Amino acid sequence: MKKIELIKTIIYNIYLILIISIIKIIPSYSNDYIETFNIPNDFEETALVLDYNESLKGIIKLIPKNKMFGNYTWLKLYKAKKSKLNIKNWLNDRLHKEIYNLGEIERLLRGPDSPILDTLFDTARSALPSIDDTIKKAVMDPNWFCENLKEGFNKEGSYTELYCVFPLGMFKYYLVLRLQKINNIYYYVSASALNNIRLRKLLEIADSFSLK
């Protein structure tokens, strides 16, 4: 009887050893990574909360500490809930959802507190009708304002980028979308700015993206 119990114990221990060995061999694609950026002192990090029904999971939102035009300067990081995507189609579809900011910027430029109501900006005001043209075109075909998709690289490998510029009278609205697959997970980055200097700063931050 004791021999039978001993044999059972040995078999059970061998079974546990085999299970543990298999677990160690199988690659891990868990979500236990920490997503990080090199964040400048003039930016702050906040949580990015989305509706439950979104196809994305929000992770991080970076915004300037100076809030004067900060509502239109941001970098957002998401995870896609699906592991299989057609990158070109997905980015093009996402672009249609991201251009909602154009309407808000139009209201900013035409509102009673707009800085361009100053007489120094008479030329800018005369150019305002082109804002309507841009918004109308963007609603129908936002890709018209974008460059061709291109590949880039950061610490985690390659990503696909869609770079867009929307003219708004004398001003421009910059929007850059990136999609990158890491460990069978798609990470999506979007960056928004009202001038190219600020956009370059945001893309420098985006280039520092890494998992730890």
Can you tell me about this structure?
It is a single chain. The protein has 212 residues and is of the alpha+beta class. The protein has one domain: Protein Transport Mog1p, Chain A (3-Layer(aba) Sandwich), CATH 3.40.1000.10. Helices cover 35% and strands 30% of the residues. The strands form two sheets. Strands 2-3-4-8-7-6-5 form a seven-stranded antiparallel beta sheet, sandwiched between helices. β6 and β7 form a beta hairpin. About 6% of the residues have low confidence.
Relevant terms:
single chain; Protein Transport Mog1p, Chain A; 9 strands; 6 helices; alpha+beta; globular; 30% strand
Radius of gyration: 24 Å
* Overall shape: globular
Which sequence of strands runs across the widest sheet?
A: 2-3-4-8-7-6-5
Structural class: alpha+beta
Poorly predicted segments = 18-30
Helix content: 25-40%
Beta content comes to 25-35%
Query: How far from one another are the termini?
Result: 52 Å
Order of SSEs:
HEEEEHHHHEEEEHE
Overall pLDDT, averaged?
A: 81
- Assign the CATH architecture: 3-Layer(aba) Sandwich
What count of structural domains? Answer: 1
> Quick one: CATH superfamily?
Mog1/PsbP, alpha/beta/alpha sandwich
Largest sheet: 7 strands, antiparallel
Number of helices: 6
The gist of it:
By secondary structure, the protein is of the alpha+beta class. The protein has one domain: Protein Transport Mog1p, Chain A (3-Layer(aba) Sandwich), CATH 3.40.1000. It has helices spanning 2-25, 87-98, 101-110, 122-126, 129-140, 196-207; strands spanning 35-36, 43-47, 56-64, 74-80, 150-154, 157-168, 171-182, 185-193, 210-211.
